[in-house]
Amino acid sequence: xxxxxxxxxxxxxxxxxxxxxxxxxxxxxxxxxxxxxxxxxxxxxxxxxxxxxxxxxxxxxxxxxxxxxxxxxxxxxxxxxxxxxxxxxxxxxxxxxxxxxxxxxxxxxxxxxxxxxxxxxxxxxxxxxxxxxxxxxxxxxxxxxxxxxxxxxxxxxxxxxxxxxxxxxxxxxxxxxxxxxxxxxxxxxxxxxxxxxxxxxxxxxxxxxxxxxxxxxxxxxxxxxxxxxxxxxxxxxxxxxxxxxxxxxxxxxxxxxxxxxxxxxxxxxxxxxxxxxxxxxxxxxxxxxxxxxx
Length: 294
What we know:
Mean pLDDT: 88
Radius of gyration: 25 Å
Oligomer: single chain
Number of helices: 0
Low-confidence stretches: none
Order of helices and strands: EEEEEEEEEEEEEEEEEEE
C-alpha cells in the first residue's frame, strides 16, 4: 500500500461590464485540478453492459483543466424581455481514457492516462412575457461538442461527439380557472469515430393543464409525449386534490400512465457502438392519499 498527498490551488478570474443599453458582457478563466473518480480506480473488471467489461488503474495523477468562458445577458424589465447566453471552451493536458480490446463477442476496456480532450458548450435562451396573451414564452438552444482520444485494439483514435437540443416552452397566466404549461423539444446527437458516423434524434413535448374547480378542489392533467425512432409514446397522468376548509384532512387522487404503456425503448451512442435499451414501465395505476395534519 502506498500513500500520496496532493495540494491543489484552483484559481478563478472573471471580468464583467456594468449594465449597458445593449446588455452585460463577461469573460472568465479557471484552472481546475482534479483527482480521478472512483470508477477509474477499480481493481477488477466490472460488467457495464451485456458485452463490455471495464477495469480501472492504480495510477493516481492529478488532472489539470483550463476553462474559458464568454457570457452575455440582457434584461428589459419594462418590456419583460430577457436574453441569457454563454460560450464555454475547456481542455486538459491529460485525462483518464479507455484502452479497449474489441472482439466480435466481448469488449475489455481499461482506464489509463492518455492525452486530454476538448469541450465546447454554447447555450442561448430568450424569454418574453406577452401581455396581450397573458403568457410567458421561452426559446432556448444548447450545443455541445467534445473531442476525446481513445485507444482501440492498440490504435490511438479520436472520438468526436456532438449534442444539440432546441426547445420552446410557455406558461399561461390567465385570469381564469384554467392555465397551461407546454413545451416542445428536438434532440440530436452525432458521434464520429474512424470516419464512421452514427446519429440519433428524438422529439419530446408536454402539455399540462391546471383547473381550479373551486377554493377546495384542484384538478391537473399532465401529458408527456416522446417520438423516438418512429415509435411514439404518450404518458398521461391526472391529479385531483380536495382540501376542505377548516379541516385537518386533505385528499389526493392520482392516476398515472393512463395510456398503459409497459415498455420504453431508448438509443444510446457510445464511443464505438450503438445500444438500444428497452425499459419496463409500471402499468396504469390509481392511488388515493389521505393526509392528516396534526
